[in-house]
Amino acid sequence: MTLRNDFLWGGATAANQCEGGYLEGNKGLSTVDVIPAGKDRVAVMRGKMKMLECDEEHYYPSHEAIDFYHHYKEDIALFAEMGFKCFRLSIAWTRIFPNGDDIIPNEEGLKFYDAVFDECLKYGIEPLVTITHFDVPMNLVNTIGSWRSRKMIDHYERLCETLFTRYKDKVKYWLTFNEINMILHLSFGSSGLVFEEGENEESIKYQAAHHQLVASAKATEIAHKIDPKFKIGCMLAGANTYPYTCAPEDVWKAMNRDREHYFFIDVQARGEYPNYAKKMFEKMNINLKIEDGDEELLKNNTVDFISFSYYGSRLTSADPEVNTKQTAANLFPTLRNPYLKVSEWGWQIDSLGLRITLNSLYDRYQKPLFIVENGLGAVDIPNENVNIEDDYRIEYLREHIKAMKDAVTEDGVELMGYTPWGCIDLVSSSTGEMKKRYGFIYVDKDDEGRGILKRSKKKSFYWYKKVIETNGEDLE
């Protein structure tokens, strides 16, 4: 048994990390446009430091990013040369509705994505479109408090209806929200939430999450009405949490840590809030405002497939003293696992963890899965021939693809495709850096914005081309 013949090999990006052209084509200001690089970035993304406009003291990497806005033809041609069957990208909400609450969409923005999709289809590449990837119009943050407000559902619904209608002959695969569980960790960066002192932050986060879950169900309903052939997916920042020891308390803690994230997909894939989440809300004194019709909407409009990102596993302990020794993992706090190597940014590398995560998700939901992010952020240094010999990236991806294949061929997991993160170098979401590179394609730009944006192929470019050509059989 091998991977299916129509397996969707490709790569993934996000508008806010690659497009640039941040006010071109009548685009409005988005949350990501006011998130700086540097020491204040994480505080702003967490909603702890208020930054609602740009200033002179900070550098904002999204403003130019890698300028995909002007380089998309060149970039998609390179993806086609690698043999991509699929390209995951996101829509910049403020390209379509500059203020978020506009009634008429911005035709210039719509035409831009028409051109991008046409370029993909020219090469036989299926677009996989994330409707919103850490992207909220700043006008909606300033006027209604973003996803705190139920009014956001109507604005999101208008965006979806516009996209599904306009691109119904060009796009089949859609994701409603990128890493929807990140609202708990990057409340402003993912969802435009800013907190005032003394507020019950957890209550605000979960109420906003309810609005997003209702909006996701609404999007699924609209999509299937416009074209029943549309495939709508949800998206989780995925990874299993391991217990630090076999002490039952550690196992219980790890189980509950996973449930904090599964709960979002439980609603999107099963159509209702699980009992453990209801009990959690009780203990936290959170009273969700659930309006008439919400539960029925959620129940009747579950997603067609489940997508997720995977960079490494997590580790936790019930012992507060042990839990003080935390490291980084996609901005999730986790203990350092002594059995795993780490990346230059301290992210733990665990290829078997991908197989474990695939099995956990498939056992839980029995819906097709799609790995839409996986990759290694590393400093790539050109050699004397100005080539990048990124064998470390090839090794990382090889081991993860092996684990992915084992999940399919040995365990029977139903998997639609694999789109490694940052198939072309782009701005790191977590740090705002360019030097934290993921791509098969090098982009000449540094952390201060210097560089001529020249694209060049890394060693991994040719390796991944061979992987796709052989449908994952030749990984050497």
From TrEMBL:
The keyword Oxidoreductase does not apply. This is 6-phospho-beta-glucosidase. Pfam families: Glyco_hydro_1 (PF00232). Belongs to the glycosyl hydrolase 1 family. The active site is at E373 (nucleophile). It comes from the Bacteria. The keyword Electron transport does not apply. InterPro entries: GH, GH_1_N_CS, Glyco_hydro_1, Glyco_hydro_1_AS. Keywords: Glycosidase, Hydrolase. It comes from Clostridium zeae.
